[in-house]
Amino acid sequence: MFWRRKKIGVALGGGGARGMAHIGVLRVLEREGIPIDIISGTSIGALVGACYASGLDSFDLERRVDEFLNTPDFQNSAFRKIREIQKSKKLSFTQKVQAFFKNQFILTYAMFRAGILQYEDFQAMVDFFVPDIKIEECKLPFRAVAADLASGEAVVLSEGSLRKAVMASCAVPAAVPPVELDGRLLCDGGIVHLVPTTVARAEGAEFVIAVSVNPNISSSEEFWSAMDIYVRSTEIMCYHLEKCRLEKADVVIHPKVGDLHWTDFTQARDLVEFGITATEEKMGEIRRALPLVRRLFSQQRKEKDQGHEVKKAA
Question: Is 188 a catalytic residue?
Answer without folding.
Answer: yes
